[in-house]
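An instance noted here:
***
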Amino acid sequence: MLRIHFTVDDFTRVRFAPRPSPVPELHAALMMLGAPHEELLFGRWRGRLSRALPAAAGPLADLVPGGVAPRFLDVLGGTREEGFALIRASRPEFVRSELERVYAGGGRVPSWVHALHSGDARAWNTLDRAQAAAYETVLAPVWPMVQDLHRAEFTRHALTVAEQGLGVALTHAAPGSRLRDGVWEWPGVTGVPGGRDVRLDGRGLVLLPTFHWRGGPLVQDLPGHPVVLAYPAGRGLPLAPDGDGTREEALTGVLGRTRAELLRALDEARTTTGLARRLGVSNATASAHAQALRAAGLITTTRTGRSVHHARTPLGALLIDPLGPS
C-alpha cells in the first residue's frame, strides 16, 4: 500500500498539472514497453513499437538496469526540450549518486554512462539524442490524443473538486483508495514490504495523469520539491494515432455525442433554436442538453428579451481549446 501523508498546509497546495508533460509520459510509455502484464491488450502495441524504435534510443535502456531508473530523470516541463533541459540542470553530485544507486547491484556499466557520471558533455548529448529518438517514435504520433485526454481528465477533476470537494476528487483519481486522518491510502502497491510512506511535509502535491502506464502510481519525491504523483488515467487501452478524430473521440467519451457536438457548436453564442438547427434535433432536446451542460458549469445561458443565448464558460472551453502552448 502507498500512504501519502498530508499536513494541513498540504491540502492547500494540491494542484492538477495544467497540461501533459512529455518526459514523464515518455518514460511511462517506455516502462510499459517492458512491463509483462496485460499482454492481451498491449502485446501488439509493444511489438510494433519495439520494432520501430531506432538504435539511437538504445542508451535509454542503459539507465534502467534491473528496471530501476535514476531519479534525476524525474522532471516535468511543457515540452520534451524543456524537460531535458531540467534533466541536464540536475546537480552533478545528484547525477553521480543516482547512477551509482541504480548500478549498485553490479553488472557492466556502458562507457557512455561512465562518461555521464563524469559530467561529459558528449554523454549528455547521447542522452538527448536517445530521448528525442524515443519521443518521435513512441509519443509524437499520439501526442494530440494525450493532450485531449489530459484536458478531459483536468475538467473532470475540476468539476469534482467544485461539486464534491478535494477529498472526493483525490479518491476518484484512484478507485479503491481512501483518505482518512490526513493520509491518502492507495491499495495494491507492491514491491515494498509493509508498503511505502510518502510525507509531503508542506511541499504540496501535483497530480499528473498518465495515459500509457497501467501499473500502480508513480511517485516523484525529490527533496525540496512538491511531490508529483503520476496515476494511470484514460481508457486503459494502448494509444494509437487515429487521425483528426482524436479530440472528438475524447469529448464524446466525456460528455456523450450530442452534448459534445453542442459544446463544439458554441464557437459563438447561439440561441436554443440555433443550436437545434445546427445539431438537427428538436428545440426541447437542445434545451435539455444545454441544461445539463449548464448544470456542469460548461456553458452559461442568458435571456435577452424573448431570446435565450448559450455560450461556453472558461471551463467548457477547456474541452475545446488547448491549455496554452503545447
Summary: The chain has two domains: 2-232, 256-317.
